[in-house]
Backbone:
């Protein structure tokens, strides 16, 4: 795979997503010109760049489509359900072709033919449009990347005896057309009246404006056999590197072309404001020449505007961002080390300089993180198609609502979130929402609803998938879990806990495996993916009312603000986002309870978890301890630590597969002195803490 | 291992107490001096903790504890052998503690004997083969990386860990000074 091909695939995938969106929106709003234009543009680019990158099959196929939508644009064809169906099917087809690098299997070929036939049937006079030109139109731009785009003005005036040598102006113009964006104005002023017209004499001449990556020599090559038989001028009129928006004025263009002398122009100008009109009225310049000049002005103007827009967005390969993030991470660690040295020197100047660095690096970090943030909406739009297609397949009536599409998440998180979300949504459609008859019997509205929402809370992103389907019966889950040996027959678990058993390995609620859900990926895989992202997943369900799945994910996987605390000789980091306050108390004010410790803070009882016991440290407790009060999942509790060291940016390092089974640690970080500190996962500790009943505290937290 | 029968095997030999062990040189990334370890709770005792290897957090295994032949105490000769292993689908970097690293030697493949059925100090499962040392009596135990460093082996012994840890909740940070006073 060459570089162009890769770039094309990337670009095409983005366009396909856009295309899918546009089609789905078009379904609701078939008259929207904006949508039709969007589809046309996407198709056009897929086709054009496809041909350039050598994806000829895709290009050829897409051409038909582009033609159809061009006609829709012109109002010759109306948007029908069938057209949208074909559109969506074509979108999928192109996606598959991209995957297979434009290799057509028999099946794909068949699909393409079928789609083309269906499409042609929609077009009343499709027969008039022969397919032959498509190949030609596309073949061109290959292998011409070495030049920047330039705009050429080509003046081509065949001599009178041009036809005598068997030359065809049309063929030459076609060649030019294939080189890039092409605008042509023909001059008919030399054409005599019919009586005096000699059929073998050439009277016409042309001005061609060509925006192309090819060089002037390439253009001259086109005329290589005819250059002696015609007047030919090829000039670069815009190098594409000038910044200003305004191109030359009409007068200037005409003077430059030699259509009018500067003096003549000067004489005529003061008469009226519009140069073109005056010149034409005065007969100084033929109408076509002015038209041609106007076209030139327009072409260059739009081209420059497009270029200016392009500056606003830059495409950067993801690995570069990764690298950048890693470097910022290293910088943060180096800074911590610098801070430590500065603190030990008690040099005010050094400390001030470090302070300055702190600010800058924090800003840099936030900036780098924000570059990596993406709106989750891009993932959401995928699901509209999934829901639409699956609902149709199963004869169910389902609508998907999405909220909070603008919620931002780290790119790496979003990338890995797609598959689990698809799985969960498929489950909702397949197992959750009932068929219309069943819904009617239950007295529910015929339309099933799936609500997909995302929002920020407490430094986390909460994603919910709610449906109003049949819900999940905890009793059934329990008996099934016993059948499958997931739990002991005499296990005593709450309804809520029973529902979570769905995520246990080897558990699948589907009675039979359909082609939709249960394709090998179980809910346990979903859960593991979410946990790998340092997130959590929970399921709530009310029978016949519906099911809600809640995913909680960290905003970023890379760097967080943390509070470093000391326990014995160990340093433990606690994410700052969950900390509410820190209180110093005497050890003897802690009372031991069944589940750990507790103490009274301003009159309320605060459950406490000893990190000393958690970290298996046996050394004596200090008289004064620090309580770090955190809030997780609307529950408040405190960690008991010996001492608070500092607040610091911490770079999260993954502990890898070996330590995956330790759920109370979310990762490790490297401190300024090069040692490793553990980052605590407060949510998991709380979960354990709540679960544990009986036994002594040390065991519960250890 | 990838070595075919006709090849010579290059191995790095190291000491665990008096016994000589070895790993295939191709599995080893580097050997570093022992450095400060951060112990993780809820792990088996042979998982001694993690180190910072140039910004990467690397788990370190105490082979003596894993083989149940004591516990590594830190001396000036103690090393960490850094190896790369595939765990599941991930390529993981691990460290193994050695009392001392000796030499890289070449052993003809046909001189490598299968592990003895009985009498080995180490579970024969973990042994790739036995090679002759400097003298007739000295055997080198060549370890089987694929069998030893699997996810199962590295996490399986959870139960042992818990029972062991409740009996002696020791802080690992004083390892460099104390000798192996407790029993495992």
Residues:
């Amino acid at each position: 795979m060459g570089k162009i091909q890769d770039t094309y695939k990337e670009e095409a995938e983005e366009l396909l997503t856009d295309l899918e969106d546009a089609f789905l929106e078009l379904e609701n709003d078939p008259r929207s010109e904006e949508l039709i234009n969007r589809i046309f543009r996407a198709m056009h680019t897929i086709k054009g760049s496809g041909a350039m990158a050598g994806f000829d099959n895709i290009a050829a196929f897409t051409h038909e489509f582009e033609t159809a939508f061009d006609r829709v644009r012109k109002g010759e064809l109306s948007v029908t359900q069938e057209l949208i169906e074909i559109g969506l099917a074509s979108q999928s087809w192109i996606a598959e072709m991209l995957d297979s690098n434009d290799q057509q299997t028999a099946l794909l070929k068949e699909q393409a033919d079928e789609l083309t036939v269906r499409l042609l049937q929609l077009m009343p006079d499709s027969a008039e449009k022969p397919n032959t030109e498509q190949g030609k139109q596309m073949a061109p731009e290959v292998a011409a990347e070495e030049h920047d785009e330039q705009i050429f003005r080509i003046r081509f005036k065949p001599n009178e005896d041009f036809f005598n040598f068997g030359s065809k102006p049309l063929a030459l113009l076609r060649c030019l057309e294939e080189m890039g964006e092409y605008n042509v104005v023909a001059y008919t002023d030399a054409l005599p009246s019919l009586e005096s017209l000699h059929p073998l004499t050439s009277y016409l001449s042309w001005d061609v404006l060509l925006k192309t990556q090819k060089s002037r020599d390439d253009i001259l090559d086109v005329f290589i056999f005819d250059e002696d038989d015609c007047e030919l001028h090829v000039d670069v009129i815009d190098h594409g590197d000038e910044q200003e928006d305004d191109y030359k004025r009409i007068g200037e263009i005409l003077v430059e072309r030699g259509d009018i002398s500067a003096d003549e122009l000067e004489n005529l100008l003061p008469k009226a404001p519009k140069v073109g009109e005056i010149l034409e009225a005065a007969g100084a310049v033929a109408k076509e020449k002015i038209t041609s000049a106007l076209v030139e002005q327009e072409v260059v103007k739009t081209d420059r505007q497009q270029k200016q827009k392009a500056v606003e967005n830059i495409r950067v390969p993801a690995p570069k961002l990764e690298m950048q993030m890693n470097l910022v991470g290293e910088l943060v660690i180096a800074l911590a080390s610098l801070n430590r040295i500065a603190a030990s020197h008690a040099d005010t100047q050094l400390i001030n300089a470090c302070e300055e660095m702190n600010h800058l690096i924090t800003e840099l970090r936030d900036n780098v993180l924000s570059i990596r943030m993406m709106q989750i909406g891009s993932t959401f739009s995928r699901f509209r198609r999934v829901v639409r297609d699956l609902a149709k397949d199963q004869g169910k009536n389902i609508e998907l609502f999405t909220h909070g599409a603008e919620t931002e998440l780290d790119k790496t998180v979003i990338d890995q979130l797609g598959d689990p979300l698809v799985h969960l949504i498929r489950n909702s459609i397949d197992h959750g929402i009932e068929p219309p008859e069943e819904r009617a019997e239950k007295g529910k509205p015929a339309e099933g609803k799936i609500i997909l929402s995302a929002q920020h809370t407490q430094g986390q992103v909460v994603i919910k998938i709610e449906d109003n389907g049949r819900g999940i019966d905890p009793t059934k889950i329990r008996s099934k879990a016993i059948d499958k040996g997931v739990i002991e027959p005499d296990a005593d678990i709450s309804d809520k806990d029973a529902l979570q058993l769905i995520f246990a390995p080897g558990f699948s609620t589907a009675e039979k495996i359909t082609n939709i859900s249960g394709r090998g990926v179980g809910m346990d895989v979903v859960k593991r993916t979410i946990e790998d992202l340092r997130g959590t997943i929970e399921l709530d369900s009310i029978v016949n009312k519906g099911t809600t799945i809640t995913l909680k994910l960290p905003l970023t996987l890379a760097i967080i603000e943390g509070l470093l605390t000391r326990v014995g000789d160990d340093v433990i980091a606690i994410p700052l986002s969950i900390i509410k306050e820190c209180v110093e108390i005497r050890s003897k004010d802690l009372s031991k309870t069944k589940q750990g410790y507790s103490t009274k803070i301003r009159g309320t009882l605060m459950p406490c978890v000893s990190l000393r016991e958690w970290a298996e440290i046996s050394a004596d407790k200090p008289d004064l301890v620090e309580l770090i009060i955190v809030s997780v999942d609307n529950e408040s509790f405190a960690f008991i630590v010996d001492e608070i060291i500092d607040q610091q940016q911490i770079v999260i390092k993954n502990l890898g597969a070996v330590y995956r089974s330790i759920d109370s640690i979310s990762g490790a970080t490297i401190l300024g002195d090069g040692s490793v500190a553990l980052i605590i996962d407060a949510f998991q500790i709380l979960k354990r803490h709540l679960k544990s009943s009986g036994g002594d505290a040390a065991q519960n937290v250890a | 291992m990838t070595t075919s029968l006709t090849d010579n095997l290059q191995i790095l030999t190291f000491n665990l107490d008096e016994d000589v062990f070895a790993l295939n040189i191709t599995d080893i990334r580097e050997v570093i001096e022992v450095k400060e370890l951060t112990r993780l709770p809820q792990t088996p005792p042979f998982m001694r903790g993690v180190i910072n290897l140039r910004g990467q957090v690397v788990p370190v295994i105490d082979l003596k504890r894993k083989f149940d032949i004591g516990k590594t105490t830190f001396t000036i000769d103690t090393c960490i052998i850094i190896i790369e292993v595939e765990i599941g689908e991930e390529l993981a970097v691990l460290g193994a503690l050695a009392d001392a690293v000796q030499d890289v030697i070449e052993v003809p493949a046909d001189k490598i004997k299968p592990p003895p059925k009985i009498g080995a100090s180490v579970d024969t499962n973990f042994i790739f083969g036995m090679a002759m040392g400097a003298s007739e009596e000295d055997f080198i135990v060549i370890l089987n990386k694929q069998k030893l460093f699997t996810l199962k082996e590295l996490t399986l012994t959870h139960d042992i860990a818990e029972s062991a840890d409740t009996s002696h909740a020791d802080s690992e940070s004083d390892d460099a000074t104390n000798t192996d006073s407790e029993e495992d």
